[in-house]
Amino acid sequence: MVENTAALSLSQQDSDFSTEFKICGFVHYLNLSGVVIGYTIASSNSMMAIRRSNCFNKSGGKNPCRMNPYIIAFGITEIILSQIPDFAQLWWLFSVAAVMSFTYSSIVLGLSIAKVAENGKFKGSLTGISIGTVTQTQKIWRSFQALGDIAFAYSYIISLIEIQDTIKSPPSEAETMRKATLISVAVTTLFYMLCGCFGYAAFGDMSPKDLLTGFGFYSPYWLLDIANVAIVIHLVGAYQIHCQPLFAFIEKAAAQRFPDSEFISREIKIPISGSHFYNLNLFRLVWRTCFVILTTVISMLLPFFKDIVDLLGALGFWPLAVYFPVEIYVAQKKIPKWSTRWLCLQLLSAACLIITIAAAAGSIAGVVGDLKSVKPFKTFY
After folding, report:
1. Which of 147-151, 267-271, 293-297 has the highest mean pLDDT?
2. Dihedral sign of CA atoms 299, 301, 305, 307 in order
3. I want to staple 244 with a disulfide (CB 3.0 to 4.6 A). Which of 14, 87, 153, 216 is the partner?
4. 135-179 residue pLDDT tens
């Protein structure tokens, strides 16, 4: 009788873990899809900013630029790169993307510091934008949206496992990943905090949503163009980082479901040069191309990046960065319920859930406001 009860308890526990596993996977891949849509919009904004610098020179800013051609150009680039079979073969693109991130961050920081020096003082205040410039309600919503911005910065965690799988050992992959994560998060936090603080100090209440594409700076044009090119290249790589896990999941699931299908499993060797071949898989070609086209079309329907980013950050932050990691840690370490450590972890999870709800509410308000002024496929920059 005791054995049967224990077996039933274990079976129920396994069922609960299976359900949570499926929910985590669904949120994970939904978040990946949303992130790449945001990256598509952001890259087109940067490409338009390069064009717009010419618009300002020639027409004083009266010649608007359509967004759609740049989104389509980005989509075509991603269709080509998405045909590279797996994560490990894209290491060179990720390295270039990392260098580009450092490049445009440095340019923004340098221009912000120069602007503060030109002003001779720090603009803005410790409490943020002043009531009067915006209403009290708008300030509350914007504060919630800012939480979504911060939460979006945690989107990198959904690719850590895939990146770790490409690392050679020894030393152990976990040890290498721990050091790499510590260094990268520290450097990124330092740069982005400096960019945000000096950007606000430079423009105060009149700070644009994006210091580069919002034209907080108008000169030197060539330096702004370099920064925006760096953003585009960075996002080309970031798109692939977030897409590859989704690609691999769908292709593995399809191969398991239809093991005898030649369309899914057959690899056609195409000679490239000498003894090098490219393995063309028809299912991979069709599925990945359709996915990129879908994200491109959605990007043209919703061409407002910041509020989309806020919403994605809010929706993905608590379940992927807090709740599931906490539950996994509790199960792995066998932390007893109602112990001090268990209570602290649950309080942390609850606090982050409240932040997620507030950020999502602010982001939805921002998206609703954007929808009132945006015309799908026809929006100008």
Report:
1. 293-297
2. negative
3. 87
4. 887 788 778 777 777 777 666 666 676 677 667 777 777 788 888
**Cβ distance 14 to 303 under 8 Å?**
no
Strand partners for 270: 278
Please give the model's pTM, rounded to 2 decimal places: 0.75
More confident site: 304 or 82: 82
Convert the pLDDT of each residue in 225-237 to its tens digit.
888 888 888 888 8
Cα separation, 197 vs 242, whole angstroms: 28
> Which structure tokens are listed for 148?
């979504």
Mention every residue, 6+ apart, whose C-beta is less than 8 A from residue 370: 304, 307
Distance of CA 35 to the CA centre of its chain: 4
Q: Where are the alpha helices (DSSP H) in 82-220?
A: 91-119, 136-152, 160-164, 173-203
Cα of 70 vs its chain's centroid, Å:
19
In terms of pLDDT, which residue wins out, 64 or 228? Answer: 228
**pLDDT for the residue numbered 343:** 93
Distances (CA, A) of 364 to 142, 218, 358: 11, 31, 10
User: Cα separations (Å) of 189 from 10, 195, 366?
Assistant: 42, 10, 25
How high is the pLDDT of residue 346? 92
Cα distance between residue 193 and residue 189, in whole Å: 6
3 state SS of 229: helix
Tokens of 27: 């949120």
Residues pairing with 279 in the sheet: 269
Amino acid occupying residue 5: T
* Higher pLDDT pick, 220 / 259: 259
Q: Which of 318, 369, 365, 371 is closest to 346 using CA atoms? A: 318
Q: How far apart are CA 95 and CA 220, in angstroms?
A: 27
Q: Please list the helix, strand and coil fractions of the chain in percent, rounded to the nearest 5, in that order.
A: 75, 5, 20
Q: Could you please report the per-residue DSSP string of 3-58?
A: HHHHHHHHHHHHHHHHHHHHHHHHHHHHHHHHHHHHHHHHHHHHHHHHHHHHHHHH
Phi-psi region at 217: left, alpha or beta (left = phi > 0; alpha = psi -120 to 50): beta
The size of the chain, in residues, is 381
Mean local confidence (pLDDT), 63-70: 64
Neighbouring residues of 252: CB distance < 8 A, sequence distance ≥ 6: none
